[in-house]
UniProtKB/TrEMBL annotation:
Record-given protein name: Esterase
Keyword Transit peptide found: no
GO MF annotations, alphabetized: hydrolase activity
Sequence ranges assigned to domain Alpha/beta hydrolase fold-3 in this UniProt record: 74-273
Organism: Aquimarina atlantica
UniProt keyword list: Hydrolase
Length: 300
């Protein structure tokens, strides 16, 4: 049974016309960008101090909680269909996680489509990682991403493997978009119950980002990439999310590669449920993320 919080969230989503906005082709990314917050303040970051710098066309905000007691870094890529963000929800989520885990965190505000293609975006995220490992041991970096941010941390890890770089400690993917083509036949049925996303608008945004690449190119669809020797992955899924059928294929692929993957399923939940406001289910998910981080710290 859904919580009261989720019923309220569904009502707000309906009043805002969220599903309708994702049913347009082309998607109105200018309207979506009205939610963007590129420079936070300490109130938004729940009292955490912060510093901002530019790395290869990404604005990187370093979040510095009080009483930090670890040399781990949480490297966070936000969602937004590659065309907008970060939003208030992204900032609050990473601020909560950093504060409760007492770990440093970087919010990666990467360049967006359609002004930039997936090649430019992934290159920027890659350069941010290379900058991070100048200060932090790769074994003490945890990648976190929601929606297309989950996509970006997977394509980053695939590139690191391909080029022989040292890998991050763990990958935490929150309802990631792993196949930009959205051709999985199971998606159409879920589109009827997904209260946020719709095939038409999501695919429109991915076309804006792909440039000359196929939507099934592994650079924009990591499910077609290699998962051999991947670091441990923690995958948050949702039953009312059009991204889930492709995540199921991802799970199979990781297991076939003898990889370690833990799946946390949000039953009856929508896309990005762990970072949505007022959800009791989201609070539980954030606690789970903190426990994953603490496990990594304890293992070191």
């Amino acid at each position: 049974m859904s919580s009261i919080g989720y019923l309220l969230v569904k009502l707000v989503l309906k009043l805002k016309g969220e599903k309708k906005s994702w049913s347009q082709d082309p998607i109105d990314y200018h309207k979506k960008r009205k939610q963007d917050i590129h420079t936070p303040n300490t109130k938004l970051l729940l009292g955490n101090a912060f510093k901002t710098k530019k790395i290869c066309n990404s604005i990187v905000t370093s979040i510095i909680p009080k009483n930090t007691n670890t040399d781990f870094l949480l490297l966070y890529c936000h969602g937004g269909a590659f065309v907008y963000g970060p939003t208030r929800e992204n900032w609050i989520a990473i601020a909560k996680i950093a504060k409760q885990a007492r770990s440093y965190a970087w919010m990666v505000d990467y360049p967006k489509a359609p002004e930039n293609t997936i090649k430019t975006i992934t290159e920027s995220v890659y350069q941010v990682y290379l900058e991070a490992i100048k200060t932090y041991n790769p074994s003490k970096i945890i990648l976190i991403g929601d929606s297309v941010g989950g996509n970006l941390i997977m394509t980053l890890t695939q590139r690191l493997l391909k080029e022989g770089h040292k890998l991050p400690n763990r990958v935490i993917a929150i309802t990631p978009m792993v196949d930009a083509s959205l051709t999985n036949p199971k998606i159409e049925k879920i589109d009827l119950t997904d209260p946020i996303l719709s095939i038409k608008g999501v695919k429109s945004a991915k076309k804006m980002c792909a440039g000359q690449l196929s939507l099934k190119d592994q650079l924009i669809s990591p499910v077609y990439g290699d998962f051999n020797n991947f670091p441990p992955m923690y995958l948050f899924t949702a039953t009312n999310d059009i991204c889930t059928p492709d995540q199921e294929l991802l799970i199979d692929k990781v297991k076939e590669s003898n990889g370690v993957i833990e799946v946390i399923t949000g039953k009856g939940m929508p896309h990005i449920w762990p970072i949505l406001p007022i959800l009791s289910e989201a609070k539980t998910a954030i606690k789970k993320i903190i426990s994953i981080i603490n496990l990594a710290i304890d293992d070191e």
